[in-house]
């Protein structure tokens, strides 16, 4: 548990944010200066996509949540100032996406996140 000076990261807020239809709640979990790295087939480990700050993260989340797809928080582990979670998604046409995230926390907010994702391909 966090204290007033060091609030705890809230797993239920994360679940509601991931599974919700709007990125606003999810965005509220990020520190203003958060860094978000994405690794996938097109942005490979040697050249990940890196988003800096809540404004860039907000634009990415708005794009993702504007798509016709569902999101589900599968697992979440929080230990001290680190967290990890799995998310499964499905587009309306049946294409599935799976992502795994490792997070560093600061003051109960996400300071750094690395997301590795894969999706169905023909």
Structure description:
- The chain is an alpha+beta fold and 122 residues long.
- The protein is built from 3 helices and 6 strands.
- The chain has helices at 11-19, 24-27, 53-65; strands at residues 30-39, 49-52, 69-79, 82-91, 96-106, 109-119.
- The radius of gyration is 14 Å and the shape is globular.
- The relative contact order is 0.21.
- Residues 17-112 form the SnoaL-like domain.
- InterPro entries: NTF2-like_dom_sf, SnoaL-like.
- This is Nuclear transport factor 2 family protein.
Helix proportion range: 10-25%
H/E series, N to C?
HHEEHEEEE
Please describe the biggest sheet, giving its number of strands, its sense, and whether it closes into a barrel. 6 strands, mixed
Shape: globular
Count of alpha and pi helical runs: 3
Secondary-structure-based class equals: alpha+beta
Radius of gyration: 14 Å
- Proportion of beta-strand residues: over 45%
Sequence stretches where pLDDT stays below 50 over 5 or more residues: 1-5
The end-to-end span amounts to: 45 Å
Number of strands: 6
Order of strands across the biggest sheet? 2-1-6-5-4-3
Mean pLDDT: 92
Topology of helices and strands:
Layout: H1 11-19, H2 24-27, E1 30-39, E2 49-52, H3 53-65, E3 69-79, E4 82-91, E5 96-106, E6 109-119
Parallel strand pairs: 1-6
Antiparallel strand pairs: 1-2, 3-4, 4-5, 5-6
């Amino acid at each position: 548990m966090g204290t007033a000076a060091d609030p705890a990261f809230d797993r239920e807020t994360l679940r509601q944010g991931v599974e919700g239809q709007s990125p606003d709640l999810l965005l509220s979990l990020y520190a203003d200066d958060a860094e978000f790295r994405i690794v996938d087939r097109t942005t490979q480990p040697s050249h990940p996509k890196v988003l800096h700050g809540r404004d860039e993260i907000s634009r990415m989340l708005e794009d993702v949540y504007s798509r016709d797809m569902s999101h589900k928080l599968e697992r979440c582990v929080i230990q001290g100032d680190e967290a990890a979670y799995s998310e499964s998604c499905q587009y309306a046409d049946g294409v599935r996406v799976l992502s795994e995230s490792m997070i560093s926390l600061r003051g109960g907010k996400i300071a750094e996140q690395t997301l590795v994702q894969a999706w169905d391909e023909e």
